[in-house]
Amino acid sequence: MDMSALREINEWMIDGARSAPTPAQMMAESCERAVRAGLPLWRVGVFVRTLHPEIYGRHFFWKPGGEVEVGSVAHDILDSPEFAVSPLSIVFKQGVEVRARLDDPASTRFPIVQDLQAEGVTDYIALPLINTDGPPNASSWTTKQPGGFTEEQLNAIRSITVPLARYIEIVTLRRTATLLLDTYVGNRAGERILGGQIRRGHADTMDAAIWLSDLRGFTALSDRLPAETVVEILNLYFDCQVAAIRDQGGEVLKFMGDGLLAVFPVDEYVGDEAQVCSRVLEAARASRAGVAALQFPNGEAVERFRFGVALHLGRVLYGNIGGGNRLDFTCIGPAVNLAARLEKIAGKLGRTVVASERFAGICEGGWSDLGEFPIAGFAKAERVYGLHDEASRAAAG
């Protein structure tokens, strides 16, 4: 083996693997360099935990001459029979290396050995990737070399895992921060925060369509159902909105109990207000249909509360607001206040979707003039519009 070439691989990773801008490219280049240095690698896998509400971890698989395969697994893998008998389960739980020489009868306790034998693999080792803090990640290394890995080769692999673990930890921390910000404050806000917009008072103005919704009858529902059931219903209800909002280019900024605030930014240079408002209305119709079809966890139809959303278009202040070192990245302004007042009017009128005069004027078609209403905190009354297809429902309610 070329030990100087192996040292260069380690130094390259310690320096951040600058010639490989993505983790997949880094893995491909490091494995290819290791093969050129004399390591007889066949299939290499890296398994990285994530801090994500739906994804337990990501995996990267490399084979000579192919593209690195990247994928993810859900949290339920931890309860699967396959994971329970995997060498990786031991690595993740105990942080120790696990070797399975395919000529060793004891290795047959791992079902993966049969698959590896079919490929012509002679040796397999799973190694922990030790982090500076927290549980380890894992890696697996295989060879088709007759007799398996030599001790010198295993030591070379072990030496590679040290800088590899540091590289993965740094990339994972950055990715985790991005995912958490995306999960809790939204994609656009997360990008701004990671970009350094973290001081109180850092804010910009932007034109946006505003979505402010509420769940009516939720208090009564909460009073008669177990708390766990209420949380499940609330999550189902929000699922009906969040997917529709994101599909149409919107961003959820805040959950407020059973309420939701979202914005759909308008490009002032393109002047796409009509297209944006059309997408917002499409999201509102999709959410309305989803909420109408909701079922209680026990199968009972949800008919004791209604969903209401107010739509408006205006300029908002978008940025950091709060006290001391506890900040919230949100939007405020008269346009948001008006949307909140319109949502209350929707409830009084028994309407699911209402819009301001400005929104309805831009997103033409399908609107009924519901009249002018005084708005608390505003000097003049606001004309409110509702959808034609809700007229009979509102009259019946």
UniProtKB/TrEMBL annotation:
A Pfam match: Guanylate_cyc
Guanylate cyclase domain span: 209-343
Keywords assigned by UniProt, alphabetized: Lyase
InterPro entries assigned: A/G_cyclase, Adenylyl/Guanylyl_Cyclase_3/4, Nucleotide_cyclase
Keyword Lyase: yes
Listed GO biological process terms: cAMP biosynthetic process; intracellular signal transduction
Enzyme Commission designation: 4.6.1.1
MF annotations from Gene Ontology: adenylate cyclase activity
Protein name in the entry: Adenylate cyclase 2
Species of origin: Bradyrhizobium ivorense
Top-level taxonomy: Bacteria, Pseudomonadati, Pseudomonadota, Alphaproteobacteria, Hyphomicrobiales
Gene assigned in the entry: cyaB_1
